[in-house]
Amino acid sequence: MVEGSAVAVDRTPAYVGTTFIETSLTDASTKCPASAKMVGRGTLMALAPGQGIFTHRYADGALRSYIALTKPEAWFRELDFGRPTAAMRRIAKEFEDWAPALLAMITHTDSAPIIRPIYALPIEHAWARTPGVTLVGDAAHLMSPFAGEGANLAIYDGAELARSLIENPGQIEAALSAYENALFPRSTVLAEQSASNHAQFFGFNSPASVVNLFSAHQV
């Protein structure tokens, strides 16, 4: 049996300093044509130190946006999201010198905004071996989304756990120990990458730092 509730850990996820506000807009080409044109048929990222807008266009023409701000959690708690229009206008003030088509991605939405503060476990997170149980996915290595590896890593964890169990028939503890011994260094590498990329996206040199980040991966 593999379950997280029985594993004793002495670390809890910590706020990384950035919160996403998720919004969506259907039929964007009609309701907000300038924004739809700016996004095009794919994904748009607009960045500056401490803030950003990430928008994706779906096949049905809807826009899904994530408005990012690097601020304390208390700042967001003070906003009244029971009055979503007013709350989003307040958030838009943080972007007041941005292009109107970008601001519209904040203020024009069909849905109630979803607040998504970003949390992460410590980069070198590990736990003591607990007989009969282990962790996979975010339970094992919660990190910010800026390495783009969360779902991939969770699937890989599951495959590696299965492989370890197959290779150690009837030896559950040996299988789980082998799995965790490989998991800890693997997740540390990606957690470091995620934390580094977060700093590149919202640090003082953004967006130039992000251009350099993507340019380094071009073939």
UniProtKB/TrEMBL annotation:
Any GO MF annotation of the entry: FAD binding
Domain of life: Bacteria
Pfam families (alphabetical): FAD_binding_3 (PF01494)
Keyword annotations from UniProtKB, A to Z: FAD, Flavoprotein, Monooxygenase, Oxidoreductase
Domain called FAD-binding: residue spans: 132-168
UniProt-listed Gene3D superfamilies: FAD/NAD(P)-binding domain
Identification of the protein by name: Putative oxidoreductase
